[in-house]
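Please, structure for the following, as tokens.
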Amino acid sequence: MNLGFISFSFTGLVGLVLGFFALSTSYGAITDERESGAIKLLLSLPNSRLDVVVGKVIGRSAVVTASVLVGFVVTFIVLITTGAALELDSFAPQILLTLMLGVAFGSIGLGISALANSNREATLATMGLYLMFAVLWGAVTRGIPRIINAGADQIGFSGLSDTASAELTLFLSYLNPLRAYETLSAELYLDSVQARLVTADFTQQQALAPSFSDSLPPYFSAGALVLILLVWTVAPVILGYYSFQKVDLWMPADRCWSNRRRW
């Protein structure tokens, strides 16, 4: 049995489970304390709202990191005891990628918690976003090139070529952190072109294989996919903080957007 095979085969499942876990541990980080009133006590101490957000990010990231490391340690022990062949040069980067995905989803959940007015809003937003990432993203990415081509046809312009349409669909799919993680994980065990095409459908493979055989465009590079994960890690926290620092915490959660005064 080979660890690389196991790691690559189950990255999709690992991503789905980890994403759900990270969102579940973080989406109520701030809304829970706002609804209970504990946030006012916290801010009455020498803490700024930035301190609160940064502290929540570090705390939730630590929980996710510890869980991921425990999971990999258990996997490592099981495979060693069963005589599996360990590809350590792929195993360590796989751990790092998984940690990056977990922290990214934790940041997304925290951003939702900072943006939401209540736990109910945070819960609904989290469920909707997870459903989009896990189920609906593929339909959206395939639909956008079709919409572009239909619009171009209506105004008498030529639409996207098969290659351009396939490239756009693939690029949009990589904006999903789960897909970026899967592809980066695949690249640990396959060459760059195979990793990009391994989850593509037959039509995309036929359209992209000839152009990818020469060289990958920079926006399909491993660096670009890592950047996408980093953006999902940083951007939700920034947006959440920008909203949270304007909310009037003296008012009930269901009214705090109607009169935003600083704490």
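Residues 1-7, 251-263 have pLDDT under 50 and may be disordered. DSSP finds twelve helices and no strands in the chain.
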